[in-house]
Amino acid sequence: MESILDTAIVDRGRNVVSGSRDGTARLWDCGRSACLGVIADCDSSINGVAVGAADNSINLGSPEQMPSEREVGTESKMLLVAREDKKLQCLGLQSRQPVFLFIGSDAFNCCAFLSGFLLLAGTQDGNIYQLDVRSPRVPVQVIHRSGAPVLSLLSFRDGFIATQGEPEAN
What we know:
The chain has strands at about 5-10, 15-20, 25-30, 35-40, 45-55, 75-85, 85-90, 100-105, 110-115, 120-125, 125-130, 140-145, 150-155, 160-165. By secondary structure, the protein is mainly beta. It has one domain (about 5-165): 7 Propeller (Methylamine Dehydrogenase, Chain H). The protein starts with a strand and ends in a 6-residue tail after the last strand.
């Protein structure tokens, strides 16, 4: 496993998800400092991860194996994975099953949930995609304020906060 680029707390914090440069998203048991499993294994660096409660209308799939007794609060949760290869991936956290895969304009740097079905993802070329998990093929909206990379996203009140870096020189 290479360097961890982002983490997300699951439920009350007994488990954490990490996203790494080696392309893996792993579920960790905080009490034992042990990896409970690989949730996603991509051919690309994982720049950001987010965990959110899924709306009842979203099919998260069923686990192929019984979850560990140390896996707490993963049921009815989604995992968002912001990838370097321009892909945003959503999986059922407990099931490890794919929910959708969205291809953006550039590397995804960060992601966040706004609700049980709405999410945000920011790219290196300055786009912020708002997607609906129930119909993710077409974004609800794409916000582009500048060409500066979107570095972080946070759900806040009825909207969100975004941070951007310096625009890349051509």
